Amino acid sequence: MFRVMRKLLFVCVFSFLGAFVVYAQSLPSITIVNNTGYAIYYIYVSPTESDEWGEDLLGDEILQNGATFSYRLPQPLSAVSLYDFLLEDEDEDYYIKWEIEVTNNARIVFTPDDLGWD
Questions:
Q1: Sequence-ordered list of residues with C-beta below 8 angstroms from that of 13, at least 6 positions apart, any chain
Q2: CA-CA to 5 of 20 to 30 Å: which in 20, 53, 67, 75?
Q3: Which CATH superfamily is domain 28-114 in?
């Protein structure tokens, strides 16, 4: 009886872990490209429907001009596919993209044309 219970527990644990891995792999990955001409100190990504930006994604990193930053979105595209993006440089200039339809492996390119609060 103990062997059967142990085997059942083993199957349940690995089934759960397998489902978690599949879910994590279904979360879309995006790449933000900094072509603004300036170093970026803060990156915020938020679902379009949200009223808040959330936390800075860069932390202590600085995204130099011409560099890229990869990020895995926290929800699958079936749940959320429209996002707003905000980048901030050292002079507190903001580069913004509103209501971007994201796909897996999307490249979101920021240029000087994205400057301001349009």
A1: none
A2: 20
A3: Domain of unknown function DUF5300 (2.60.40.2890)
